[in-house]
Write a structure and sequence with these properties.
- By secondary structure, the protein is mainly alpha-helical.
- Helices cover 79% and strands 0% of the residues.
- Helix 1 packs parallel to helix 5, helix 1 packs antiparallel against helix 6 and helix 5 packs antiparallel against helix 6.
- The two termini are 18 Å apart.
- 24% of the residues are buried.
- The radius of gyration is 15 Å and the shape is elongated.
- It has one domain: Aspartate receptor, ligand-binding domain (Four Helix Bundle (Hemerythrin (Met), subunit A)), CATH 1.20.120.30.
- It comes from Alteraurantiacibacter lauratis.
- This is CZB domain-containing protein.
- InterPro entries: Chemoreceptor_zinc-bind_dom (IPR025991).
Length: 121
């Protein structure tokens, strides 16, 4: 059982890696990602933890948890839209989604994760 700060650290790293994966997919026009899976916030390790049973009810009811959960979902929806555009052959649309939707949501999620971790210290 991992602590919340450990999970947050892992999530920040893992979600940062998504930026590179999406940039690579846009540049190549291909990828091994399925937008239907990428769009789901419960498929990644952090999402499984966030939706899993390790987190107590008080934490789940807290504002930081609720904010992170919502932003994490929005992050995955944005990532899925980028992947879908790439898979449909719309590289410029994918880049526009990356710049206009994914990156701002990613940055917002990382800020919320960092804030939550700071509140736990």
């Amino acid at each position: 059982m991992s602590s919340i700060p450990e999970q947050i650290n892992a999530a920040i790293g893992a979600h940062g890696a998504w930026k590179l994966r999406l940039k690579t997919a846009i540049a190549s026009g291909t990828g091994d990602l399925d937008w239907r899976i990428v769009s789901k916030d419960c498929e990644c390790a952090f999402g499984k933890w966030l939706h899993g049973h390790e987190i107590d009810a008080a934490t789940r009811a807290s504002v930081p948890y609720q904010v992170v959960k919502r932003l994490h979902q929005e992050f995955h929806i944005a990532a899925g839209r980028v992947v879908q555009a790439v898979q449909n052959g719309h590289r410029q649309a994918a880049q526009d989604l990356m710049d206009g939707e994914f990156i701002p949501r990613s940055e917002k999620l990382v800020r919320a994760l960092t804030k939550w971790k700071g509140e736990l210290a």
